[in-house]
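go over my protein:
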Amino acid sequence: MSVVALWHCDEYSSAALDPIVREALGLLTFSQGDRVLVKANMLAARSPDACVTTHPALVESVCRALLDLGCSVTIGDSPGIEPFALVARVSGIAAVGEKLGVPVKELSRSTLCPANERRVNRRLELSADVLEADAVVSLPKLKTHCQMQLTMAVKNLFGTVVGTRKAQWHYAVGLDRSRFADVLLDILVSLPPVLSVMDGVRGMEGHGPSNGTPRQFGLIGASADAVALDAALCPMMGLPAEQYAILKAARARGIGDVDLDRFEWRGDFDPRTRFANVDIPALDALSLMPRFMDRLGRALLASRPEQDLSRCVQCGRCASICPAGALVLDGKKLRFDYSKCIRCYCCHEMCPRDAIVFREGALMRLFKRIGMART
């Protein structure tokens, strides 16, 4: 039986956070001298108000409580493309480290994980700093995601993959979200014990994980079962669990608990709550075609990224992050090679100006027109 705790929390004050955090840490056993990696979401150099990264107040509350327990604490993540020092400074997390005397460290040492029969992908490299820790406290941000629809507890662990190896995984799995879900679950089962503490005080809807709209959810969630926490939050966000690729893969592989009737619930937030009209990105119907027809699926079903010239500042981050090498900045114009594009939407994820927009595939547009004609 998995324990999932949900608390009301409407602000980032220490008075509101500290009692919740101390109760949340009780869901995993910490001992004097434990090396704990606090894995914040440090996706990009955005201010806390943008709701792209874990709020520094929650990072501070968690680190302070761990220090009080006698743990040796390090804050870490591996951002997508921007310099780690810049991300740490702009997100406010560097200041937390300076205040508490806690190292804020880029996860840059990649090492091969020991063999694990629970993994689908036998070869997996993760940050040595994470694998050498006694425990991980993961601090995901409650957000929508243009590729996976939602990014929550399990998805936050992708940051333990070092640097450009993230792009390699995106390229390897292509259009297949179920394969990407398997990669995320492989990471989960390869790590030391993980306690997830969800920053849902203010999250994001719409074009997440970096260009959506901040939204007040007023929630902190926690569990030592990352899959269970995702299973609890998914319906609250308005997405049925059976439609979420990570939970489907977890159920099929027997990883974590997805049955809400079996959970032991704690906290003061009703798990039956449904946030009204959360703007969740729609998925292309890629499952209509088998994997060997990926190329046709990209051309006819998958939405393709395009440039919005009115917003683009020609920073080149999209071209730098593209795992397929399908994107070139030519003067002011972005030139997409759609025969190479794997529709991972990393270009959109890393764009600081929301200048990457999506155009639906031809078949999807046709299906919608047919559907409209019938109504």
